[in-house]
Specification:
Elements lengths: L5 H16 L6 E5 L2 H13 L4 E9 L3 E9 L7 H4 L15 E7 L3 H13 L4 E5 L4 E6 L6 H10 L20 H4 L4 E9 L5 E10 L3 H17 L1
Antiparallel strand pairs: 1-3, 2-3, 4-8, 5-6, 6-7, 7-8
């Protein structure tokens, strides 16, 4: 297919049209034949105010390569290996990392998992935790772990029933549709054996949201509390 302005102009029109349709389409995707087009397309995506995009490289045989750029007006975050599939791009062209991990030395999975569950249950979040796989998924309306939020909770008493921890039911990365619009931040926590002897790794994954500062803040809070334990 030949189009005026080449593939960059064609995809730019797609981006402009997506600005009208917004989240009526969950993800918009494009495939490019030139590596130089990738940076231009991403700059157009960012120019439109999209903060959720992904890049990938497709290899066929030993010589043929194509590149993909996808973007979404929604707030569900893809896995990092999906969103950042082109590692040699400049840092400012890659989406913000949706995963973070840290190790707790001289610890066991059961001990760290129990402490993680205790910390998150103390917050005003929807929290599903499965002991068998040491994994939990949570959703929050806002930053509920800051000092000011904790003081507010102490003054107001216990959290509303809709935000209380839930039982160990089916583990997924979604929540009820009625609540989804109000929950601006989603996360997944996995506790695994660390690479070092007698250490435990805590993996934080960003599932939902548009504010990466919120994700960084949450991971930082969890690390501080676990390392201080």
């Amino acid at each position: 297919m030949v189009t005026t302005g080449g593939e960059v102009a064609f995809v730019t029109r797609m981006i402009e049209e997506s600005d009208v349709l917004k989240d009526r389409v969950q993800w918009y995707t494009s495939m490019l034949g030139k590596l130089s087009s990738v940076s231009e397309v991403i700059e157009q995506v960012k120019k439109r105010g999209v903060g959720n995009w992904a890049v990938a490289e497709f290899v066929q045989g030993t010589r043929t390569r194509r590149w993909g750029v996808a973007w979404s007006w929604g707030d569900m975050r893809p896995r990092m290996d999906v969103a950042r599939g082109l590692h040699h791009l400049p840092k400012h062209l890659l989406p913000f990392p949706s995963e973070s991990s840290f190790s707790i030395p001289k610890s066991t999975i059961d001990t760290v998992a129990g402490r993680v569950n205790e910390i998150v249950q103390s917050l005003d979040v929807q929290w599903k935790y499965r002991t068998q796989i040491s994994t939990g998924i949570g959703f929050a309306k806002e930053n509920v772990w800051s000092r000011s939020a904790r003081r507010r909770k102490q003054q107001q008493g216990t959290a509303p029933s809709s935000m209380q921890p839930r039982s160990e039911d089916k583990m997924d990365e979604s929540t009820d549709e009625d609540d989804e619009a109000e929950l601006n931040f989603g996360f997944k926590l996995e506790i695994r054996q660390g690479q070092e002897v007698d250490s435990t790794e805590v993996r934080c994954r960003w599932l939902k949201g548009v504010d990466h500062v919120l994700f960084e803040s949450f991971c930082g809070m969890l690390k501080r509390q676990l390392t201080a334990s």
